[in-house]
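the two lines:
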Amino acid sequence: MLISGELDKNIAYLEKTFKDCGDIVKRKFPVGETRRQWVFVIYADNMTDRAELEVNIINSLMISVRYVEPSVEELAGNVFEGLRDGGISSADITETAEMDDVVFAVLSGNTPLLLDGYKKALIISTRKYPTRGVQATDTEVVIQGSKEAFTEVMRMNTALIRRRIRDPNLKIRQLRVGRRSQTDVALVYMEGIVRPQVLGEALKRIERINIDAILDSGYIEQLIEGNWLSPLPQAQVTERPDKSAAAVLEGRIVIIVDNSPFVLIIPATFNTFFQAVEDYYQRWGIMSMLRCLRYTAGVLSVTLPGLYLSATLYHPSMLPTVLIYKLVESRMPVPFPAAIEVLIMDAAFELLREAGVRLPGPIGNTIGIVGGLIIGQAAVEAGLASPIVVIVIALTGICGFAIPHVSLVTGFRLMKYLILIMAAALGLYGFCLASIIILIHMASLKSFGIPYMFPFVSGEVNNYGDFKDTLFRVPLFMMKRRPIFAKPDNVVRQK
Amino acid sequence: MFSCNEKISVRQLQALVILYVFGAGVTVLPRRAAEAAGRDGWFVVILSAALAMLCVYVIASLAAIFPGEGFVDYSSKILSKPIGVLLGLGLFAKIIISSAMELRIFSEIVQQTMLAETPRTVVCALMLGAGVYAALCGYEVRGRIAEILLFITAPLTLVFFLLAAADADFSNLMPVMVFADACELIRGSVTVGMSFTGIELCLLVFPYINASEGGQAAAIRPALVKTAGLIGAAMVMATVIATAKFGAADLREQQWPVLELMDAIEFPGSFIERQDAIVMVFWISSVFAVMNAGIFFSALLLKDIFKKEWRGVYIAVSGALILGLAMLPRSEAQVYEIQKYIFYTFGAAYMIIIPLLIIIAAKLRKSEADVGSSHRGRTGREK
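prediction for all of em together
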């Protein structure tokens, strides 16, 4: 709808639109010495910067313009331009002739200014949301490196990346997603380094979203992923600006969603989920060792319960005799079959994990200790579980925590059950078949055109250069080329 | 950017061939070599490897003549459509029967070593299920799986062999080259060549290789010959170590010498007491590679023959046929008989005879066409 030349008509429309919206503040007042030119401002309370609004808009219009030449009366017919160019002391002012833009501006925390007799409005940037500010990261803690985490305010998040990359090629393409929420979504990338096909595909998938609201980046993640059946994440989630900046410099795209402190990084490969930002801040030797440890932990977190079941149920001859005796002895008082025992203990562990996450910090920790030590000990003493199963399940859980990305661990937690059930039914044969099925699935996955298992597959495309940052991380001076995500004609990052 | 064009790289093709040929053939190879030439079995393996390299060279040469074309297409073009279709059906039968026999042997071993009470049909059906899933995912995914499996199994296999070598008595190989009859040796190398069966599947891969049409032959031929050489070298190593470890006489008595070899290894400071189950893990991955290739290529042949895009149906039909045929033999001995028969008939034909015939026919056709065109050119000028 277009803005009317009659201010009262516009006010009536806005009154109707914002009926029963208690947080919307409206004010109609005259400007100039003769007080004949009426203006109207409307804004959302607590989403705007009150100081900016009162000093730079209300004060300017009500008082300051009276003392500035030319006066409102002298500007007759050009009041709109006069106010725009000298009446309001704000850097960010835009014009619009659409009423929808006025409504959206109000909902975004900006302040529209409508003038009687003019079919357009000024939109003055006054956004100031209630925010918790930049705080320390909770989920990706490092010993050495930045402690900053993203916040819920998109603009603050883009600033955190921009501060790290002072290059005009850093582009922030902004979109609006969600029919009702009209959530701001920004794609951050380096022009010239990002692969145009990946950028095009990302834009296409985001523009295809037709949902009423986007409340978190998780919505976008699920709505743009290529294979919704897969338990594995196809986009990386992070709350670290330094990790996002590093990803952008590698040619990847960071998707920032307003109201979410977690951003998405695409494309993502299996290998990227084992990379922690600290890997590049500390010396290569120790970090390579830790990388190997993480991969081992990843494999164990999926396979350990299945391996235990197949070894004890079907192939005890694999195990040393002393261990078999111990196993038999420890299992004697347990009334359940081994597979059920493992499933019960695993369910108990998952329950403790869930309870620990939901409860506030100190209580969550207590639950972990109480659950892990006391309940585990009690279960063993009561003969409900054997000590070795407690060890196997605990070790599986700990291995999961060693992986830097929670979303991958979540996928692993699901895949573990396939292996566990097949191993319980068919021993090592079932274990191998389940592993092969998982492998086929992983080999079939792609994230925005990049094979998920790269560089373990198709590595020759990049002359196996990406292997430098997989199981081992070579010294930084050897990492001269960008990984596969970068545009092929711009891969040199270090000379 | 990686396109979804159902094409694989030459490197992925190499990984597929290694897994398929080495995995399926190596388990019994030392026994066959020992039966053929006793302690000089390794020499027979070298001859077989050379033969395999020659076969691969001939097969890959077809790629130069018919770049980007499928087996049924170019054999129809050269030898007429009915013959092309007949050859396609023959290869289909060969693949299905070989895969079925391999599956049957595998199920027997699984029953012997791992799951004594599980019905054979269940063991086979589950393995086929995994093969069907991989085949449904397409050729690109198969190539990637092969790369990952090779990445995992190749270093471990090498470690196994090195550990076995450390404990072997190499005097069991001495004196070398004491064979009495050269003809016997050549016959032996043909028998041992059974372990290289599977390379004929290369006939079907050319349209699925990611290389420019002109560069396809240049890329594929040396790569495949190198791969056959590499497989041959690994097989020679396996034979040498197995002969050194067990001696030629004992080796003849062992049904699965490589599995025995791996089981006999003592890991320094190992936690695991017996490796038989772990050894099976290696074999399971090889048999998976064989099943996967069997189902995929037989479905591919059906598609080429019937010219209809019913991939799911073809894969299901191939899987069902393999399962049915795997259940037919009455005993393990019969399975070996069938395998031998298939190798000496279909195997030899598709590994060397048919590719050679197609090449010769193509050359003859080309020279006829050249003569015809030059004759037409001359008469045209005369007019």
